[in-house]
Specification:
Blueprint lengths: L8 E8 L4 E3 L4 E3 L6 E10 L4 E9 L8 E3 L2 E3 L2 E5 L2 E10 L5 E11 L14 E10 L19 E4 L6 E4 L10 E2 L4 E8 L5 E9 L2 E10 L3 E8 L2 H4 L4 E10 L12 E4 L3 E3 L4
Parallel strand pairs: 3-11, 14-21
Antiparallel strand pairs: 1-4, 2-3, 4-9, 5-8, 5-10, 6-7, 10-11, 12-18, 13-15, 15-18, 16-17, 16-19, 19-20, 19-21
Amino acid sequence: MNQDTNQVRRGFLFLANKEYIKDFHTLSYKSGNAGQFTATLRVMHETEKVEKIIFYAMLEGEGTLLEFSVAGVKKVHHLVNVPRHGEVDFVFTFEDLPPGNHIIYLLTEDYLNPFYIEEECKGHIGFFYFAIQVENAKKKSLANHVELFEYNGHTCQNDKGVKLTLFKDKKMKKLVESVCSGSYYYLAINNPFDFEYDANLNVLVNYELNQLGKIMIPPSSKVVFPIILSEELLRDKQSILFLLIGKPIKEPNEYGFPERIRFISKRLEVFRLY
């Protein structure tokens, strides 16, 4: 039996500058007077080759990625070269955050050449989030651009399989390995927990964020609904990934921080007939 000699072991450590920490134990932070926030993401890595990781961030309730600065360069995506054996510190700064109380999501993903998608686009997803209080910022609060959609789905008994999966058929027998525009697919969201939650469903097309809408997931159930990916969405793109972030509808957990649940699909190739 052939063994995979390039298995990845990776860890993440989030280190915010002291002046921005309100309560480390409850993931509670604050911004500076101008709405800025500086922190470090430390990536610990054990693999047999150098890996390239893409790093991006989201503000809860918004349908776009956040811009942030690394080494004086401000953009929504940053690439990090992670050594074969060791660690790397990634210092980043948010600027002009909108006033108010927010949740920020930090995500890392194995970077794929956008013009070459391997047969297995599973990737390794790193996910971290924290609460931040922004005061005295000049920027106005962002409008909530989330649009509700009618998914006309149905629920069935949950299972122990993958939590966010795309199928070709309603009976969930044929897994999707690639997608094309205009076709019907069935997205299955499995909730193994005994509580319900509100969730935002997003799709990353290449590495561009598109927010599909809100959905409520019942406890201990699987929600299945049809979805069509438009030509406009997939035009000139090579891969997609579904990302669902849920907020449990229950009392705050015993640790006192804002609990969030994330389900991420495998990355799928965009297929074209021409």
